[in-house]
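note to self: dont lose this again. the chain is below, predicted strucutre after it. 852 aa total, dont forget to put it in the shared folder this time
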Amino acid sequence: MTILDEARRLVSLGLNPLPTRRGKKSPGIPSWKKYQTQRSDASIEAWFGPGSGYTGIWTATGSISKLVVLDCDSTVAETFWRERIGAEMEQTCCAKTSKGHHYYFAIAPGDKIQSWAVAEAESGIKFDVQAEGKGVMTPPSPHPDGGYYEWIRPPEAMLPCPTVLLDGGQSYRAGIPPGQGATRPGVTPAVTGGPTPASSEGRSLLSELLRRSPTAGNRNDWLIRVCGHIAKLIPFEDAYRELVRMANSTLDEPLEQVEVDKTATSAWESEKSKGLTTIEKLKAEGIVSGTPDEANGWLVGSGKTLLSPCLVKSGDSKEEVLKEWANFDIEVLGVIVGEETTDYLIKLTTINRVIECRLDGTILGSPRELLRWLAERQCSSIQDPNDMHPRVGENKRLQRYLESQEAPQYKSADALGWNDAVGGFLTHEGIIRAGASSIEPFGDMRPSSILLDWAPYRYSFAGTRDEARRTLQQILTFHDETVTAVYGAWWAACFLKVQIMAESSLFPFMALEAPSESGKTTGFFQMMVQLGGNHEGHGEFTMAALRDRVSGHRNGQVWIDDTSDPEQTWDLVRQTTSEGSRTKKQTDRHHQERINLVAPIVISAEGLAALATEKALADRAVRLSVPSPTGRISLIDPSRPQWDDIKDLQAQYQGDLTQISGWFVSMALDCLPMVSQIRELRPTSGRHGDKMAILRLGARVLEMMSGNTRVVELVDAWCAGWDYMKGDNILTTEIIPKVLRETKYPTAPSMYWPVYVDRQRIVWYSESGVADWWKDQRNLTIRQRQLGSEESLKGQRRDLGIEGTGRIKDIITKSGEKRQKRRFHPLPADISALVIGRAEMVHSDEEEGQLQ
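---
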């Protein structure tokens, strides 16, 4: 039976189920509390259907489901209630939990029953009565601590609720005799909103116990509980015993004094010995197995706490006992060993919960960092108590305790994505391989813990492969079809980036020239980035943060939007296209480490002038001009805007398309043999040829992943129409076109202008004159000034294939009295035409026609 089938069954029985995510014990939908008074029936199919991402069921208790659940977390509690409720405990609906059982009981329509709970340390009784405003996890949900909730008896077996559970705990506090808790008609249930019942959670029940005398058959149980409460409150034994005698004397039929003294002694010794236990006693009781010594940091674990030796006074001498050192225990599941770092995969267990997480080994080197890390997980240790034996710092104790467990060791991976050592795609969750439909468990290599901060990616296989393919097909219709095809081709190639770079000189970055309202940060582009596994989206990063981001994933896109430091950003982007490296200081500020810049990059802005001025960047960029999608009409319903389709699709996946990202990794890896086609797909040699070949390959991968047969045609046409000239640089892309525009296209040499166009439409320019003119321009970056120097222009001329010393031209001064000479170089005819075209392209309508 699927989770959807079970949810349907619960609805048919009148219950109100809500969805949960794995590892959680509360509903995973926004504003879920409204469903404590509102039926959830209409949303069941969407919540629990394929691809929803929800894995469990949380059922609301109280009047909305006409349900009360008795949650017993211990055998003591179950025995207690079995004696008081009787056979109905073994007949009503029951579910197995990780610690005990849930017993389901029905209440009458309209009844609002108050929830209440008890947790008594002295008696071991711990239970919850879940009713109005509460709820319980329901089979077949996974339990956060491992395993699944299971039906012992199905919901159809539910019996009416015993009266003793309906009064908010009043009968319990009065002392319920065995056999008197069964259902009895005519009892008015407690109404939510009345006086809050006394509870042992956070305050004593002593006042209620003393106020309500027990029945004759329940006096011993009552006295044990009274003694436990008084022993907790009173530090002096003589006063304690006197109070116990006084409490006994208030009974209608007091117990014999011998029995009272025996019970009082047992309770006193039990309370005062807590936390001060000899090692031998704990071993005998099976609470601990090891012996505290130097090798384990003088720590032994009880499963939920850590204990350490202390010297306490015992008469005239001191006795070594174990005292609680921390409110948690740690089991090391594995150790990830890198070249310079060690990370621990741990299971952190406390009284209330179990957490599986990573502990960065560097945290153990700093007591302050360790305390903060523990506090974030609601854990703490005792700060160097005076009687601790021996005195050793918390971080040193814990490090030795972890090392003493001799857990299996794993290799550390410096980046997510394709990893040759594992032969697959490494993620935070495990390994994805070609053709996979789920994530494979880790082998002997795992990602470094620092990647949890540096690489915000997640991968999942919600739904089916065909559903993921249909979703991609739809997203490719959410913008101009050439834009989606070209961007999609680059996006698909990112999954195979490692293999592609073995066949090419670089991996290009994506440059989106997108004005406002072009949908660059919502809609199509945002959704595609999520399909690639990135759940963070676009951002404006500091250089330090950006450097870390692009070092965390070899295949995961990093999206930079409107950079605030263009020069440094472009330099880093240039390095990343060839997987360069940078040096940064380590946290100790004295050592340095090199990190590799490996991620494919998307950079978006309203204008990307640097791509027109620097050939090294232009060759590495897939420069895509993005029109506005405003006004696009839905392909599903022509009466609606396409934005409605986008919002509907986002809602289907709760705004998180990474739920299906694993499918696209798997599908892309199926295409690995296609990488060899790059050689055939190159239109020319060099960086430009590699860039176009990668896009064309990506289009073929995208076609396979989406089933869209148009993308190859669109991308091939876009690549063929790309204006490319070997050796193109800032001289021909910006400087000469700008001079021509500002000088109104002079047709003869002049002392004022370093460029002119002759009658054959050949462009002539003076290197020294152009360099001087460029130097006087305002608002140039340092890099632009460097590229416009005379020495740089000479190199750019040679890149264009223009050799020789040029020609000396006579220049007549304004008065016509004196002639000067200046050396000019001609641009070849094809380059001249290209440069003039660029100048005219941005020229205003009024200026057009000046060149005749």
